[in-house]
Amino acid sequence: MATNIAILRRPLDPTGAWAWITTVDHKKIGVLYGLTAFAFFILGGVEALVMRLQLAQADLNVVSAATFNQMFTMHGTTMIFMVVMPAGAAFFNFLVPLQIGARDVAFPRLNALSYWLFLFGSILMNFSFFTGSAPDMGWFAYAPLTAANFSTSSSVDYWILGLQVMGVGTLAAGFNFVITIINMRAPGMTLMRMPVFTWMTLIVSFLIIFAFPVITVAITLLLFDRMFGTNFYDITAGADPLLWQHLFWVFGHPEVYILILPSMGIVSDILPTFSRKPLFGYVTIVLAGAVIAFLGFGVWAHHMFTVGMGRWATSAFAVATMAIAVPTGVKVFNWLGTMYGGSIQFRTPMLFALGFISLFMLGGLSGVMHAVVPVDLHQQDTYFVVAHFHYVLFGGSIFGLTAATYYWFPKITGRMMSESIGKTHFALMFVGFNLTFFPMHFLGVLGMPRRIYTYAPDMGWSGTNMAVTIGAFVIAVSIAVFLYNMVRSARVGQPAGANPWGAATLEWSIESPPHHYNFAIVPTIRSQHPLWDEEANTVEPPPLPYVDESSIHMPSPSYWPLLLAMGVTLVAGSLLVWQAHAIAGLTMGAASGALALISVYRWVFEPAVATEVAEGAAAHH
Amino acid sequence: MYPKQLLGRSGRLVAVGLLVAALLLALSACSSPQTTFDPKSDAADKIQTLYILIIVISGAIGAAVLIAMGYLMAKFRERPGVKARQIHGNNTLEVLWTIGPILILVMIGVPTILAIVGATRAPSEDALHVEVVAHQWWWEVNYPGLGPDGGTLTTANELHVPIGREVAISLKSDDVIHSFWVPQLIGKIDSIPGRTNHLEPFTASEVGVYLGQCAEFCGLAHALMRFRVVVDSLGDFERWVEGMNTPPPAPEEESFLASGQSVFIQNCSSCHAVAGTVAAGRIGPDLSRFGSRLTIGAGIMDNTEENLVEWITNVTAVKPVPEGLPTALAELGNGKQAMPRFDDTLTPAQVEAVAAYLRSMTIE
After folding, report:
1. Nearest-by-Cβ selection for A326 from B98, B218, B224
2. Where in chain B do CATH 2.60.40.420 domains reside?
3. Is the ipTM of this complex over 0.85?
4. Strand (E) or helix (H) holding A456
């Protein structure tokens, strides 16, 4: 057997760190995603604090212009690709199989590969800090500033290659979750009985599948321009720099919905639980999510109202952008409808969910303001826009993901998070958030552009900037409280039991934390609220006979996803080495390419369930 | 019911309302020379009308939703003995709150499209045409037809335009994408290499100096790519054009200014032009009649003797420049070179002479 004569013996029942490194269990992978995302959240937060120190007053010299440009580029890139997306993926991974009554995702090893590619891609990009060439051209990387003659260091290359590696993992995850949700639902779990979070995961996965190829192509062309002398974005060779902007935003706008829809799903699951009543207009909320995702592909040029597109293109994108407000508004109203007539419990997850609704709604309204093009010609590239998208992505996405953390922490760890610390965290974060981002609207109105590392004292911006900086540090304190709460609760929190919140969805029907096989018996679902209906005895509860755990076949751990991800990342890295030293780069590329190929080969011929386990189970029978 | 607590909650709502009002007051109290809320042109006036419309509409919606949310939180909080009503939805309501926003959006959308169409109109026949070319990190300003013998009048980092006459500004870029923005006069439009963009034609309504700034990230010194628009009376504008087109008087021979001129010609003229002299470099900003400029270095310092000496002596102390300086001339992306520091090639006396020479060329 190939696996047995290998240098690396297949781990059968690893413990400790090996259990995590070789895992293909969606729950462990979910936790890895979550912890990694939180680590990058701290890094991205520190980058934000550096910017806020520099901008606290006029004419400060806390950091240089070059460092400031690196900070805002990496803050944006980090928060989008290394924090909000993987934090969403953490919950997709942990929850989707549990919510649909599956034992794992469709392709467990591919799932592990997605995580490792995300981790290594992130590390590759951040490694640029150690070589002194961190990306410094903005997360939007507009051509031709990214051309080899304008960005002479490797900064853009690190950004491209890191993103490319991450993107492969993200695409794989997108396919994995679409296939999982379509194919692996338990009997009776019809699409219209799925929890809204799973629905939003499905929609986000489709968004990923359609949006990520575009950025993949865009940055591949850019890489070819920079490394091999092609002319896709080269103005002097007759290229149009707007090609990049169209490609980038055809990806970039759906990306916004990739970042926000998971939180919409989270809130749609949390509100009913703490209002003690079903979601108001489930079908409408699901459809609104799908409509938002669909329209999201038709509004990209609203990021480009200042490029001079001509009156009719501009008008069309303005109207399409306004149209997105309709399904978004419907969602907000239906969330309020969910509270109506309820018996609302203000537990910490609910507080963050309510914070999400109010802040996201404000961000949505300022978004409509941007669709009024003449007004946008004032707001574009000012702090007004910074305020807007932080209301959506922090007030929206991050508040939603924080709500999710408080809500599902008991399921993940088996312990409750502290309510009192949680409420302190909420109060600090809500106040800090608004102190940071609300005054940014004023800065925008007062004409302060984005991405400036300094401003003159007579601009009238200093006082407001100081308030913003103070707010940013209040947020930092709230995140420290959050971290403390998680660490403390994981060790000494109250044991949670299966369903501490009295929630309705399937994941709460099993132990906390769940067994590695999730469901001893694959459940049969008879309604949208399996647990509530069982409580009310409107549906016959499923029988729970004794199950012999050893008869449940789960995929065995594997090294190959990790090694393949390592190989792919090193191939990307070898291009950077090649830029500096051709022979060293080629050697490294050949070696890491070989590692990747061997990993693929071994993966392909590795049975999903290790032979020993399968034989053992057969003998057992 | 617990009226006391309800009152407490509405009290909190009132407090929030007061806070918002206070913030709005704070906004009106503090102002900026770059504010978007003090329009001084017909085009900026039109934008502000729409701006106020959209602020009022979205502010009203936002307040209404927050108040409704606060009410629901207060009214339906958990109380002993009261069970949640198991409502699954309401089709009539859901249709209503789909159609309602559509109607509001039509109210916003129609004036938006009308304004977009208006903003892309052709300039009137007697409009003043100005061509602005953005460079890393300064602005070249050309007035076709206003130069000597119907040629082009060129200046940098400061636009002069007359009050009451339509101004049509076209935008180009010499390197990367920039964005031209003077909030009190006009919304921003990008300067894109390989393309020519047009700002909405505008007519300034008040004499004064208006601040502008590059709004699209354009690399290292993006924050320092500032400029001024000087709105002159018609007479002042004509005097300015005439002054720009008159060759500056040659400095008295053997004088301090003459030494400054000669140092300038030897060291600076390959990059900088001064109309009416042999200096005709096009790499850096045109310095004709520099003495009448308000600022140095794309609007980042006042035009004083001391600042100009500091600038020439060591530009890297004032403005971040690409790596390479001061040991070698830093090359910009378009193949041109950034301004070097001169403290290793010129003596302090020579620098002072150049500064004095440049500042001596004013428009009377």
Report:
1. B98
2. 1-16+32-75+121-245, 256-360
3. yes
4. none
